[in-house]
Amino acid sequence: MLHPDANNEITSPYTLDTPGSFPASQPPTPNNKRGGGGLRTGAILLLALVLAFVFGTGLFAGWQFGHTSTLSQVAVAPLQPGTASQVTIPASTGNNADAVREAVIAKVSPAVVQVNVRSGRSAGIGSGVIIDKRGYIVTNNHVVSGAQNIQVVLSNGTSLPAQVTGTDATDDLAVIKINPPANMAVITIGDSSQLKVGQAVLAVGNPLGITQTVTDGIISALNRTVDEGQGGAVLPGAIQTSAPINPGNSGGALVDMQGNLIGIPTLTAIDPEFNTPANGVGFAIPSNRVKLIAPQIIVTGTVAHTGRAALGVSVTDVNQNIVAMDNLSVDHGALIAQLLPNGAAARAGLQVGDVIVQVGNQAVNDASSLGDALANKNPGDSVTVKVVRGNQQLTVNVTLGELQAGQ
């Protein structure tokens, strides 16, 4: 769940000294007031003491969870790589960690850009990564959402205008394009399915407008399901990392120690007790998601295949109030409040008022655990769904559909 002000924008203190922006001399302070359609530059996730996402009794889009498809399932042209980097990354020997890290940074940094956005009197800053030699750059949707003007600053300080090629709010991804200069660096995209918890990573971006900043850490966990809060995306399969991620890092690069892009830093946690960033608890969108989404946007400007399984329901947590109001015979689960017409659940015969208590072998105690149960499923998978209807418990086979972009 987002910090309550996170739908407002955090403008960089390092934008040009013009109305609606901060002078460069001002110390970094977040501005949580939206003005003139300001731009959110660093989404912040509110976490409880344990990693749990709270949805209360509001409707929860259960069809917004699914498994990431592979690029081979989408018939679009692949990304076009750039000229091979002249930087050689030495093999790790156990006592040359500094040399390896320095080489990775030298290889990766030229492909990471600063993204300056403006809408009316509001300005913001984020990061982006050059993924195609034709000038295509991937970033977060929340970085460029509502932008009227976008300027990309390359690692050498060159500033170029950029246009939005297309966006995918469902995944909080966007592709923008510049007119590529000669010999432009292009990052190599790695395979995020091969990541291991504990492996070293680097995050490269522009936190608080401090350009070309590198932080290091490890992969803390894999396959997190992360909710950005009301109006935000739900990110299945997210990478949790201890590499610090701050406002302005959004849309940048999370790389492995071979210099491969393995994630897009997107969220950082806020300690709810002190309302301050929780050090070392950040989340990134996996690179395989980029490999699925970005080529579709480049070719058509839209996303036709999300690769996410769709149950086709909106649900709410079963709690004491819901039990009393609806006279339920079960005190836990996810109550179906709405069915997507002709969706997977509707086709299988599920009904509004049914309480989902199990998907496959996984118990469903609330809306969040329903999301967890669906997160690793593919479109077309057949799953057993146990529901309580009145005083009956039913088991229904459901063939999952595919989430449509924007849902």
In short:
By secondary structure, the protein is mostly beta strands. Helices cover 12% and strands 35% of the residues.
Give the amount of beta strand, in percent: 35-45%
The dominant shape is elongated
Radius of gyration: 22 Å
**H/E topology pattern:** EEHEEEHEEEEEEEEEEHEEHEHEEHEEE
Decide which structural class fits the backbone: mainly beta
Number of structural domains = 2
Number of strands: 23
Topology (SSEs and partners):
Blueprint: E1 43-46, E2 60-61, H1 97-108, E3 112-119, E4 122-132, E5 136-139, H2 141-144, E6 149-153, E7 159-168, E8 173-177, E9 188-189, E10 200-205, E11 213-227, E12 234-241, E13 253-255, E14 260-271, E15 276-286, H3 287-300, E16 309-310, E17 313-317, H4 320-326, E18 334-339, H5 344-348, E19 355-359, E20 362-363, H6 367-374, E21 382-389, E22 392-399, E23 401-402
Parallel strand pairs: 1-14, 9-14
Antiparallel strand pairs: 2-17, 3-4, 3-6, 4-5, 5-8, 6-7, 7-8, 10-11, 10-13, 11-12, 12-15, 13-14, 14-15, 16-23, 17-18, 18-19, 19-20, 19-21, 21-22
